Amino acid sequence: MDSRDWGTFLLPYEQAVEELKVKFKTMRSELKKREEYAPIEFVTGRVKKISSILDKAKRYNVALEDLETGIEDIAGIRIMCQFVEDIRRVAEYIRMRKDLKVLYEKDYITNYKESGYRSFHMIVEYPVQTALGQKEVLAEIQIRTLAMNFWATIEHSLNYKYRESLPEEMRGRLKKAAEAAFVLDNEMSSIRQEILVAQKSFEDDSNIVSST
Ligand code: 0O2
Asked: pLDDT exceeding 70 applies to what percent of the chain?
């Protein structure tokens, strides 16, 4: 493929990323208006770099003419949540949508990766309306907490810088850092839970006082 072919090949993916970003940002504002806090903190999206597509195709033995079906994360959306329990809720909202089809899910939170990576992935089929008609594209939606995102962003940039040559000791420390992020997530959830319980009992007490 020359650069012009790549340009047209990536067009529907760029459209899918732009549209899905708008849709999930809209979901965030809607939920924020309905409730006191939104389970979505922020949303980002990207189209995979050509060099990464080629790297992955080589790793998975995918021929250039099979990229559309063989590489599922050319279009990528990332949804960041405050709390671990928000992730399941957001995943459920996505399953209920009529504008995309969830093909399968990868739960790297329960089954975290060897590196320590945690995130919930959903591979979806999304129809884009192009000038030439409807085209189904695959997209990967990653749902994670702010702490999981903090870890993954730094680990990704260190791995990218040092490629495969990251010393074993560093990998071990990164894995420990991922555990620390997970402990932090659990502690934040537990603090929140206690605040909610205290709030509820405070509200119940004031209801009793006002009704007497
Ligand atoms: P980019 O293009 O740089 O954003 P793979 O993990 O890629 O060999 P698989 O099973 O297809 O194979 O992975 P999956 O589940 O589709 O996940 C791929 C994406 O998940 C990665 O994209 C990352 O965004 C994220 N990810 C997976 N494992 C790790 C990890 O150990 N550390 C970090 N930081 N991120 C991970 P790319 O390919 O890196 O994408």
From this structure: 97
- Residue with the smallest CA separation from ligand 1 atom 19 is 73
Q: What is the pLDDT of residue 212?
A: 62
Domains annotated on the chain, with CATH: 3-186 (3.30.460.10)
Question: DSSP string covering 86-121, please?
Answer: HHHHHHHHHHH-SSSEEEEEEETTTT--TT----EE
Q: Is 116 left (phi over 0), alpha (psi -120 to 50) or beta?
A: left
> Within 6 Å (CB) of ligand 1, which residues are found?
48, 52, 56, 73, 76, 106, 113, 115, 117, 121, 140, 152, 155-156
What ipTM was predicted for this assembly?
A: 0.92
**Cα 7 from Cα 73, distance rounded (Å):** 17
Distances (CA, A) of 109 to 84, 135, 157: 9, 32, 21
Q: Which residues are catalytic?
A: 140
From the CA of 156, how far away is ligand 1's center (Å)?
A: 9
Nearest CA to ligand 1 atom 16: 73
How far is the centre of ligand 1, averaged over its atoms, from the C-alpha of 30 (Å)? Answer: 30
pTM, to two decimals: 0.92
Q: What is the pLDDT of residues 51-98, one digit of tens each?
A: 999 999 999 999 999 999 999 999 999 999 999 999 999 999 999 999
- Alpha carbon distance, N-terminus to C-terminus of the chain: 77
212 alpha carbon – ligand 1 mean position (Å): 59
